[in-house]
């Protein structure tokens, strides 16, 4: 049950009263928190994506997989088959999706999961992208608008068969037919007036660039120009650029013209739209009417913006790739292909300079001829005199399929049609329930999932006109030609209609697709999880999370070109604004499996996402291995983290899973503390706003270094490249997830969408509060952004809501000057009202005297309870607004400590902070936390230890304490008990270990002969790296080897002996420090398990296991698969102990350090007497 987050001021006022609570109540509250940490609940268990590849599935493999998951502490698996059966099949008989053998395997999985107490979830379709199948016919598939135009002479009765617009999958249906007076230049283009094409560049197929539909691309990496020369002056009003796959550089060419071919004058530089990774459509650029004989298109990548999730094509090594440059004398709406919702894009509005009124078709002159078209496409019409353009508009399938499916592969269902969506659910997920048996499925199949959207966009369905009219308040059909790029009335009104089209699309995908699936999932008793919808489907990237029980994003490992920081922000912000407690992440997806992955290298990335707001990991990927005798076994073609039963470190890796369970148990308690809400705007598509894009709105908070760094990044001087992973080269300046670490320097922020603003937001105690518990001290309405370029637009409903919030006491930073509403609804009166409300907001202030200077200033003249801040926020804190930094982390020299990721959660009974050192070096920092009245405790999720902080104090309503963090170390700082006077202490908060004994050689080391290790124990006179050993069987060994040694222990004087076993004094413990380990080490002393060391400082408490005199120690060390796979490259295939279809490391790749490297020492450490450790 969620607890409402109290405003911080009220929470602080309430803190002194905690001491009045009965001791028994406080003890119970503390016990509940401890219980979650010591025995994490089921909800805290991580899950896995369980991929079944190519129909290669066996009952024995299923049982082994599920038993391994259970052993490791996994909570459940997303069962997802991938791809079709290979020829020949990898196993016989294969389990092709939808076949009886397949359903038998699904049922066996349910039965085994039931036996083991595991849960399963399934996707909405075969594969992971997205919702299609063989039962989806073309008319039930995703639809988009298509058109074809014909020009005729009027003044007579016409009877002609109109050219049919493009059809896909043999399916097409008419929507409407229009006639309008042919605009100037219509029908004149380089398709009809052939230019002579020359170039300073070398390359093939240059002469085909003006040929419509050309598929032979021209490409070059040279800087230079392409020239079109016409015999007579040519007037260009639009340019259509098409590549075989979207090309960033083709859409940023400089355009110059000349009358004589010698002296050229500039016209424009084409501006590429913001676009996602599935964009391969043409781009039509509107130009001011330009007449010349020579047109040059200059290619020079200098000044190119580095890539981002919403500028995907700019990520890669830049070159010019183009298959068509079509010049037209006909005016077209600027970049209409994205504005009509057919593809995920954001573009600048068309301007009156590009589209003068004279070039726009008057709405009153558009004639609807739909009733004059017969079923065979023949138009009969008596046309008035003059030249007419006939526009036939209809819809067809987008042709998208669930690409990664196999036997269940087929067309994607219509996302605006609940009947098609319901069919998809029933034919796949519903059939799984029937095949498994309703009773069994009800116990086991507890999750229903929609993965990340990978099937493009759609902009039509049979219900679209009716839905549009209901939602927007006017009929779309008179305006429909704008969806084909035809400007009607004027540039402004054409843009407004297209804005309304995109908004309707965003609402329909939410209301018809996600709502339908949510209801169907809940009817089956299933939890509904969903990943991101952007940047492929035109949408509000946060809106659908209101319907997901478990919002979900994804983050990638060492794969910056494919990483999804915006996906993560979408999911986290969506969860916060809609009050969803669990935020899942598809975790550690990797473009190229390197076989060197291990928990210690993954921890910092994991912690960064915990700090971002994630509180449950779904590991990507556990691939089903149908064989019990092939290792490493099956993979997802070498993609994803190899997290499955045949991973070398699978068994000791349970310690890493335990770490995740403890972290997630705590991070699922209470509510997130977030001070700042950033409005995502009204442009569609839209999504959460990345922090680097706020430097122009919050320059003081982000600091001059961040502002300068972003300016330098965007300048992208020299177009630097970097390679990560190996042989994947991309822009070194592209946006990466590194920017997500504490970007507002001690303040957390959420993105806040239009729905949350209008429907959920209200003001409580001066903060904007949402029903789910989130509340914010400041709402930022940014100025122009890459994804929201029109800073002068604001709808009447948004302006009205902002004014209402300010009147009720909210603080709003309004870094824009709205003067018009973006849609056609209410036009033109809505524009006037927006301007009036903007004027009212500009006159609203109730801020402290200092705010006008430190907070960027505010106008005067209103008696509202709240305040409006104008212009960028220049102050370096929000102190003047009434809330200080939540977290201040500084170095011992007083500088800001960089690389500290954090999150804060609260309840009426506790506050907890998760603090993560993102640096690969140990450090001591000074923390100042916005909590007072409670005593800080340090909870270590690696060891399970809880101990009080012993060096801390309270000053000015804040708790100050020094904190030592190991390399990539983390800790929870928990406040639950009232502070005990005098609330000031001077001991260390870190464990200071005093070495008392070193365990040198010799060591006896037993390798596993099944992995080609030596059969007999090997003596190591001293600890050395396996990869440097003279014996090739050791040098290339991968797996577990056990070090044994007998040593004598004489307890130091400060320890006492009890019945032959060593017991420390209440504050003294004995620790084993392993020094350096590659990569995990499980320790036993005298046969008693002492734990698993998998991350620095590789230190374990061995106090209970030690005895006076002789002691036997066993250290089982496990490395990764890399060295064995490298070594196998030199062996004949029949002599290799390994098998996998994944790409292998090169035979000459350097071996990785492996084994116990030491030094191994025993030491004493003092800890507070009430500390305890989770068993």
TrEMBL record:
Compositionally biased, Low complexity: which spans?
849-863
Keywords on this record? DNA-binding, Hydrolase, Signal
Residues covered by region (Disordered): 843-863
* Occurrences of domain Beta-mannosidase-like galactose-binding (ranges): 1022-1125
Q: What species is this protein from? A: Hymenobacter properus
Name assigned to this protein? DNA-binding protein
GO molecular function: any one? DNA binding
InterPro entries reported in the protein's UniProt record: Beta-mannosidase-like_N2 (IPR054593), Galactose-bd-like_sf (IPR008979)
What is the residue range of the signal peptide feature? 1-27
Q: Name one Pfam family in it.
A: Glyco_hydro_2_N2
């Amino acid at each position: 049950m969620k607890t409402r987050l109290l405003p911080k001021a009220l929470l602080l006022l309430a803190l002194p009263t905690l001491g009045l609570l009965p001791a028994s109540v406080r003890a119970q509250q503390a016990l509940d928190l401890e219980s979650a940490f010591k025995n994490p609940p089921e909800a805290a268990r991580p899950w896995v994506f369980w991929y079944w590849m190519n129909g290669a599935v066996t009952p024995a493999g299923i049982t082994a997989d599920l038993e391994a998951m259970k052993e490791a502490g996994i909570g459940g698996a997303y069962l997802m088959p991938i791809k079709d059966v290979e020829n020949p099949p990898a196993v016989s008989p294969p389990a092709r999706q939808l076949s009886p053998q397949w359903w038998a395997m699904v049922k066996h999985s349910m039965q085994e999961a039931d036996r083991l107490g595991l849960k399963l979830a399934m996707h909405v379709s075969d594969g992971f992208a997205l919702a299609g199948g063989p039962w989806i016919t073309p008319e039930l598939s995703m639809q988009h608008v298509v058109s074809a135009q014909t020009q005729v002479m009027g003044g007579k009765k016409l009877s002609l068969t109109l050219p049919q617009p493009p059809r896909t999958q043999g399916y097409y249906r008419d929507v409407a037919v229009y006639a309008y007076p042919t605009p100037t230049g219509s029908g004149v283009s380089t398709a009809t007036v052939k230019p002579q094409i020359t170039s300073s560049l070398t390359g093939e197929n240059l002469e085909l660039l003006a040929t419509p539909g050309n598929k032979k691309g021209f490409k070059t990496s040279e800087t230079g120009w392409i020239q079109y020369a016409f015999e007579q002056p040519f007037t260009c009003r639009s340019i259509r650029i098409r590549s075989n796959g979207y090309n960033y550089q083709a859409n940023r060419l400089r355009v110059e013209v000349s009358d004589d071919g010698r002296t050229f004058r500039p016209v424009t530089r084409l501006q590429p739209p913001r676009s996602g990774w599935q964009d391969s459509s043409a781009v039509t650029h509107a130009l001011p009417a330009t007449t010349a004989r020579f047109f040059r298109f200059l290619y020079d990548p200098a000044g190119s913006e580095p890539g981002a999730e919403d500028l995907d094509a700019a990520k890669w090594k830049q070159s010019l790739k183009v298959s068509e440059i079509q010049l037209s004398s006909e005016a077209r709406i600027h970049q209409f292909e994205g504005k009509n919702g057919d593809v995920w894009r954001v573009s600048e509005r068309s301007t009156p300079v590009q589209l003068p009124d004279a070039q726009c078709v008057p709405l009153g002159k558009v004639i609807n001829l739909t009733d004059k078209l017969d079923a065979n496409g023949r138009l009969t019409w008596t046309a008035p005199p003059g030249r007419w353009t006939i526009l036939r508009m209809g819809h067809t399938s987008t042709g998208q399929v669930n690409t990664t499916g196999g036997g269940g592969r087929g067309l994607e269902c219509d996302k605006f049609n609940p009947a098609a969506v319901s069919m998809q659910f029933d034919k796949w997920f519903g059939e799984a329930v029937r095949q498994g048996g309703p009773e069994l499925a009800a116990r086991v199949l507890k999750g229903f999932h929609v993965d990340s959207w990978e099937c493009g966009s759609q902009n039509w369905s049979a219900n679209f006109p009716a839905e549009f009219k209901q939602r927007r308040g006017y009929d779309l059909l008179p305006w429909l030609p704008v969806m084909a790029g035809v400007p009607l009335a004027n540039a402004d009104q054409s843009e407004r209609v297209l804005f309304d089209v995109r908004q309707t699309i965003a609402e329909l995908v939410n209301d018809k697709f996600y709502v339908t699936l949510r209801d169907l999932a809940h009817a089956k008793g299933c939890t509904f999880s969903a990943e991101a919808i952007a940047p492929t489907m035109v949408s509000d990237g946060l809106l659908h999370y209101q319907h997901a029980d478990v919002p979900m994003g994804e983050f990638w490992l060492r794969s910056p070109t494919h990483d999804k920081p915006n996906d993560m922000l979408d999911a986290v912000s969506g969860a916060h604004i809609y009050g969803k407690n669990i935020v899942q992440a598809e975790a550690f997806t990797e473009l190229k499996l390197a076989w060197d992955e291990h928990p210690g290298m993954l921890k910092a990335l994991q912690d960064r996402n915990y700090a971002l707001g994630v509180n449950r990991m779904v590991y990507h990927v556990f691939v089903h291995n149908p064989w019990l005798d092939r290792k490493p076994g099956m993979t997802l073609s070498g993609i994803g983290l190899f997290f499955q039963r045949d991973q070398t470190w699978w068994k000791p890796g349970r310690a890493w899973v335990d770490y995740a369970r403890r972290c997630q148990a705590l991070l699922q308690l209470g509510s997130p503390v977030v001070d700042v809400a950033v409005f995502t705007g009204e442009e569609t598509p839209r999504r959460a706003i990345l922090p680097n894009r706020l430097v122009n709105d919050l320059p003081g908070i982000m600091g001059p270094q961040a502002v300068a760094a972003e300016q330098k990044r965007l300048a992208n001087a020299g177009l630097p490249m970097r390679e990560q992973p190996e042989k994947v080269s991309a822009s070194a300046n592209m946006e990466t997830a590194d920017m997500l670490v504490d970007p507002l320097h001690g303040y957390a922020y959420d993105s806040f969408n239009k729905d949350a603003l209008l429907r959920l937001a209200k003001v409580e105690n001066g903060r904007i509060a949402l029903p789910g518990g989130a509340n914010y001290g400041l709402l930022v309405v940014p100025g122009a952004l890459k994804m929201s370029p029109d800073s002068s637009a604001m709808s009447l409903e948004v302006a009205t809501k902002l004014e209402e919030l300010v009147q009720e006491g909210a603080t709003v930073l309004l870094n824009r000057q709205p003067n018009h509403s973006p849609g056609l609804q209410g036009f033109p009166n809505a524009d006037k009202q927006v301007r009036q409300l903007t004027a009212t907001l500009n006159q609203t202030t109730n801020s402290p005297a200092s705010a006008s200077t430190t907070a960027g200033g505010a106008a005067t003249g209103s008696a509202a309870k709240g305040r409006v801040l104008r212009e960028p926020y220049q102050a370096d804190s929000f102190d003047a607004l009434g809330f200080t930094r939540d977290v201040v982390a500084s170095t011992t020299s007083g500088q800001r400590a960089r690389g500290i990721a954090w999150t804060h959660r609260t309840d009426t009974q506790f506050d907890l902070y998760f603090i993560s050192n993102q640096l690969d070096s140990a450090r001591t920092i000074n923390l100042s936390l916005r909590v007072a009245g409670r005593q800080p405790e340090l909870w270590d999720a690696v060891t399970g230890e809880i101990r009080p902080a012993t060096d801390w104090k309270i000053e000015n309503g804040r708790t100050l304490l020094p904190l030592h963090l190991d390399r990539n170390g983390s800790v929870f700082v928990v406040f639950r008990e009232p502070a005990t006077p005098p609330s000031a202490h001077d001991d260390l908060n870190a464990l200071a270990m005093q070495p008392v004994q070193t365990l040198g050689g010799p060591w006896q080391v037993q390798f596993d002969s099944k992995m080609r290790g030596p059969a007999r124990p090997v003596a190591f006179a001293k600890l050395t790296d396996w990869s440097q050993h003279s014996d090739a069987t050791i040098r290339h060994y991968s797996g577990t080897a056990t070090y044994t040694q007998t040593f004598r222990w004489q307890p130091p004087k400060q320890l006492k002996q009890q019945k032959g076993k060593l017991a420390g004094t209440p504050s003294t413990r004995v620790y084993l420090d392993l020094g350096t380990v590659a990569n995990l080490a499980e320790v036993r002393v005298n046969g008693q398990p002492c734990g698993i060391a998998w991350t620095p400082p590789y230190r374990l408490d061995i106090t209970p296991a030690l005895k006076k005199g002789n002691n036997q120690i066993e250290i089982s060390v496990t490395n990764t698969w890399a060295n064995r796979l490298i070594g196998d490259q030199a062996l004949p295939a029949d002599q290799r102990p390994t098998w996998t279809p994944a790409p292998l490391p090169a035979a000459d790749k350097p071996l990785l350090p492996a084994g116990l490297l030491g030094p191994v020492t025993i030491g004493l450490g003092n800890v507070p007497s009430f500390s305890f450790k989770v068993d």
